[in-house]
Amino acid sequence: MMKIALDATPLTVPSGGVRRYTEELSRALAQTFPDDQFWLLSDQSFAPPFSRSNVKIGQGPRNMLERRWWSWGLQGEISRLGIDIFHGTDFAVPYLPLRPSVMTLHDLSPWMEAGWHAQSDRVRTRTPMLLRLGLATMVITPSDAVRRAAIGRFHLQHDRVITVPHAAAASFRPIPAPEHNPPYLLYVGTLEPRKNIGLVLDLWRELRREHPIELILAGRRRADFPEIPPEPGLHLMGLTPEEELPGLYSGAVACLYPSYYEGFGLPVLEAMQCGAVVIASNDPSIQEVAGAGAILLDVRDRSAWLEALRSAITQPNEMRVWRERAVTRSGQFSWTKTAKLTKAVYEQAIHRFRK
Description:
Elements: E1 3-7, H1 17-32, E2 37-41, E3 55-57, H2 69-81, E4 85-88, E5 101-104, H3 121-132, E6 138-141, H4 144-154, E7 161-163, E8 184-188, H5 197-208, E9 214-218, E10 234-238, H6 245-251, E11 254-257, H7 266-273, E12 278-281, H8 284-290, E13 295-297, H9 302-314, H10 320-330, H11 335-354
Parallel strand pairs: 1-2, 1-4, 2-3, 4-5, 5-6, 6-7, 8-9, 8-11, 9-10, 11-12, 12-13
């Protein structure tokens, strides 16, 4: 039996890609490897996202010294529990390499545009140090594009960085949705600077002059993103329960995701798995995920976005081929596959650490 600890700190926030990754990965690992034991550790309180007999919750800091979590507290918890390997699900691993560890490097956005992450100074300074000092035994990236960029930026050994794609939960599937009148375009994701929400609003406003089309923005607004004033036809749903998303994806005329940069683009895959028409940016990571299952466009080519959206609105029958391609492509991803690939990285990390 292997004892594996995962950083559960992403579970302390209500939404976001890293939270979804941590929850779905830990669930898939526990289901796929029932003989192993998985511990969710954090210095902050969180609600267990699911219940399984081989998933345990750590106690957190036990004294003032252990409140220095990454320096002392986490090490104490790992030692008490007899953990074999630690998985940092959110850009961090313990500062003392007493056990093998794996870090998931979701993307390089904290080092690209300061305005994209106003509160990520700690990640920007800490993560490069952890990588260059070798404190992360192995590194996982969700796409080959992030892997290449990470190797180049942080001067990592090629065999130390492994691509393990994410997946969409099995609950994301095509749902026969009642016809929505008027029809709507959909964006799902956090409202933050990197997601290019301004283009979504701009395109919709122009199309609304020609067609009775509404816009749904389903996602939590981050503190550094300005409030969007209400206007007719615009639905700001805020943080949306996961069980409502398959219906929203399935019923949309098209799902827009014109992000400037992504490490994976999980909402793209979720929408595709629901058989949606997806129109997204041709970011390298999104290209890896979407393949031929989505319409991918340059975010600078506004006319191309308008043309694609007009086709989606006026030629729904011709969009069926994109819906079929989306479902076919999304079938290549699963959290079970992700769990198996991740477990293989754990085994590599243990072997590497012992050398």
